[in-house]
Amino acid sequence: MPKPVNTNPDFFGFADLLSEAERTELAEIREYLEREIKPLANDAWEKAEFPFEAVEKFAKLRLAGYQYPEYGDGQQRGPLFTGFLSLELNRIDPSLAVFSGVHTGLAMGSIYHGGDQEQRDRWIPDMADMTKIGAFALTEPEGGSDVAGGMRTTARRDEGGTSRSSEAESGGHWVLNGAKRWIGNGTFADLIVVWARDEADNQVKGFVVEKGTPGFSASKIEGKIALRTVQNADIVLEDVRVPEANRLQNINSFRDTAKVLAKTRGGVAWQALGVAVRAYELAREYAVNRVQFGKPIAGFQMIQDLLVKMLGNITAMFGIVVRLNELVAQGRGSAEQAALAKAFTTTKMREVVAWARELFGGNGIVLDYEIAKFFSDAEAVYSFEGSREMNTLIVGKSITGHSAFA
């Protein structure tokens, strides 16, 4: 009698490290995402439009408050749970996972870690409820990997001028000028965290620009082949006046900005794992059901070789992200470890989605079979939050003591 088929991409059972309650909660989240979010995904991706009905559906899960329990449901969840949650979101749809990650990790994270208590209390409750959506504006048209040293968006302190409130009047204003590019959620966000270089001390600082502020404009980037649902924007800032009360009080240099990025970089490694997991699931299911030469193609040696290589990559990815989250939970996770995790997992993800698309043959290039979307989206995941090359140089400096940055 044949043994039961193991369909679990978590071949070594890393999820067993979660508590029973956490596994139950994740199973409920997966079921909800399958039922409520997945049906929106392919149509939105093909049209390159954002399904705004998804916001209310995400809000019902209280996903935005999971990392900030005092503003969410009050339950403290560990970093490992947060990682598996990211896996589930990306397994359903990378574009909608990016929407959630930009809002929850980058925008809320910048305010939570870079703002003072008043700022956290002012903005995060509405962001946790998803009644206000956030964006994170760091990358510039001429500054991606070198944005730390080459940032051209400027901030100038203006103690005088016309204020709209006594609070703003007492602290003066900042005037922002410049441009940003590839800003996820940028076309519709209510709160945009904008990073700009202070003309006075040449240090990078963070500002929360609220929707409708005069001089702020955002236009959608068209023609993308990846993460098509994500509404990436080109942003222009022309004499945008921001009150001192909207300057993130605990951000005084790019080093402080980098601390926020280090926290999210490990999240991208989980994102890569979620993409790889779904590609493998799709490929395995297709191989079992696709009949050629009188039998399922899963019975051919070369197909099994592809599947096993995918599973090997996924298992290695699980190992690195789970250990990273354990170190974070112990307060021992480093930026260099996060950089290695991002570089390694996105590279292995790229291999997995390519092998999966190969297994589908001609069917792998049409959206009907879903793998084409994950194959395309993987290219964006591979590139953002620090390219493989930049993360490699971060790790290289750590292990040699020599900086090879140009």
TrEMBL record:
Pfam families: Acyl-CoA_dh_1, Acyl-CoA_dh_M, Acyl-CoA_dh_N. It comes from the Bacteria. Residues 141-170 are annotated as: Disordered. Keywords: FAD, Flavoprotein, Oxidoreductase. Residues 20-130 form the Acyl-CoA dehydrogenase/oxidase N-terminal domain. Residues 135-240 form the Acyl-CoA oxidase/dehydrogenase middle domain. Residues 257-399 form the Acyl-CoA dehydrogenase/oxidase C-terminal domain. Its cofactor is FAD. InterPro entries: ACX4-like, Acyl-CoA_DH_CS, Acyl-CoA_Oxase/DH_mid-dom, Acyl-CoA_Oxase/DH_mid-dom_sf, AcylCo_DH-like_C, AcylCo_DH/oxidase_C, AcylCoA_DH/ox_N, AcylCoA_DH/ox_N_sf. Belongs to the acyl-CoA dehydrogenase family. This is Acyl-CoA dehydrogenase family protein.
